[in-house]
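Hey Z.,

So I finally got round to the dioxothiomolybdenum(VI) ion thing we talked about over coffee. Here's the setup:
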Amino acid sequence: MDGSIGIPVVRRDAAAKASGAAQYAADFPHAGTAYAALVTSKVARGRITAIDTMAAEAVPGVQMVLTHHSLNEGLGKETFAMKGGHMQSSFMPLTSDEVHYAGQIVCLLIADTQEAAEQAAGLVAVEYATEHASAAMDDPGHEEEPMEKKAIDVGDALAAFAAADVSVDATYLTPAQHHNPIELYAATCAWRDGKLLVNTPSQWVKGKQAALAEIFGIPMEDVHIESPYIGGGFGSKATLLAHTVLVAMAARRLGRPVKLVVPREAMFTVGSFRPATRSRVRLGAKKDGTLTAVLHDEVGQSAVIDHVAFPATEVTARMYASPNIRTRQATIATDVNTPGFQRAPAEAPGFFGFESAVDELAIKLGMDPVELRVRNEPERDPVKGLAWSSRSLVPCFRRGAELFGWSKRNPEVGSMTTPDGLLIGMGCATATYPSAMAPSSARVRLSADGTCVVYCGAHDLGTGAYTVLGQVAADVLGVPDELVRVHLGDSTLPSGPVAGGSITTGSSGAAVHMAALAVRDRLLAAAGDGNPAGWSLAGGQVIGPDGHGRPVAEVVGAVTGGVIEETADWKPDALSDDQMRAGLAGGMAFAGPTTEKHASYSFGAQFAEVHVDPLLRTVRVARMVGVFACGRIINPRTARSNLAGGMVWGASFALLEESQVDRPRARFANTDLAGYHISTNADIGEVVVETIHEDDLVVNPIGAKAVGEIGIVGMNAAIANAVYHATGTRVRKTPILVEDLL
Ligand code: MOS
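And the result:
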């Protein structure tokens, strides 16, 4: 079968996953493994005044108990990923008696069996001196800390807003949320001859390799991270989590492999989460719908231990043409574990408010919300005047409206009903996601048996990278799909970037493309006895100047060693060679989404139909339509799956998801999959996805922009806008619950 670009090749990892052959991090066996369990803090803030581990140590099989008293070895310094390092947080548990958040690791127990470790964990008695704590940013007493460097000002937005014919000024809330991948965090660490092997689900093997080398003071090549399969990450497995360091340290002290699988409850606090946000959006327009002022003030929940935020305002400022734009960002520090990346970290919460406000403006103007967006389509990036590398938002809305049947919508609130009497609501919203790129290496090997193997330290989060990256090589080399193999997710492979920011296909794809071109050049040269002129590749044959072909396998077989193999280092144009080297060595080196010349984003149009029970006020998502323009689509099957998955999550965001805070105890309360609600099949109706073709050769030579995260963006607003259309109630927070519609 043709496995080249644009073909809906079936996932290479599908059979291994469906049959159970795929080994996830916790599945790798190591002889002599000891098992770890955690004790986490029951209080949110204060000090540990006493910790009694006597009973725990007496449990048969217990090998080691680590507390802040026993963790006294000089570990190398590693920093928080948002400050140039690789850690999920600036704070390292077990380094002092301080407690900064509920659920903080206060003790690690290691035993011959998992059961003994857990029994021992239950016997650890911790006493605390507690201080007042708050885990919710709207608790009283918090102060906002402005992020002055992030402010954007174009024109005089306050004056233009005050003078606008029609205006909207509203505030929108989104709650804390957690990733909840089905695969729990896990780490098995084994030392042999001073070298460390780690099996852990990872979105960044190179970053974790660099970090652990630094922490343990050993060369990078002595750290090996293996992560071939990931059972969902969504950003939670990008950075190095503190417990991996603790497990590696315990394994070194014990002289045995140690394995920790983090229980679901602790998943809410030993990693990161999506912080709560509050957005005030002000829009001003002329009577004909022309925007005159766009203002977005966003406040994000941060942690006392890390003042970190993921403001959407860099992106919302660029959505629509307006001569006057003003955005402000601030954080509010709360007593929680450090927030982090969660699928479209900035955009998914920020666009809920922003795109709800656009809908509110359309209603005030008496204008169709699709037409309002089309009217304000900017020719260039409205903040810096940069050219778009590509922007097909209007075609997305036109096609989406057609697919959805938008013209059948009666704009009057509550005017449409199903045959069985449910209120129908129809809403839409814009989706976007930055198309950044990062340096990547890749190696491509063509063998005399006809196989083509791709090696790259990138990651397949379940998103299709195993399949897509092979297609890029197959496209250049004309290899049928069944002869393509792909190796990813291992720190011994040529360096790949973090699987974050939706950069894998574009960045590692560009590196595979570059390596495959180098292989092709050598193949043609080999066929022409050193002179490639006039030789070309087609249909598995190398064709000579005389029109005669030789099978590729025969040409490769005649080369010394019987293989042609090339490694390439690719970087986006906007990065220097030094930045590329830093990136390939495990640093975070992103170019874009804006460079000196261009602004690069993927765009999309989201449509939702909801059915609301007129008495019970329950909301069902009957159907969703998303049309996206993400550059060249390498594999329509995996792209569709990604985009549809994001839309499903958007519905979950709108109606279900919230990490509830037990305010008096300052801790997340619904820390399991019974209490933390996510969409199931029964919650989701029809999902229709289409993509619009673009060849964005500005971002990379394969023309592919970001696909991974855009699907979730805007769907929450499209659903809120649909709920308004059905009920006339504007809910300015998520999740939208029955009680909000009574
Ligand atoms: Mo994505 S949240 O940038 O891993």
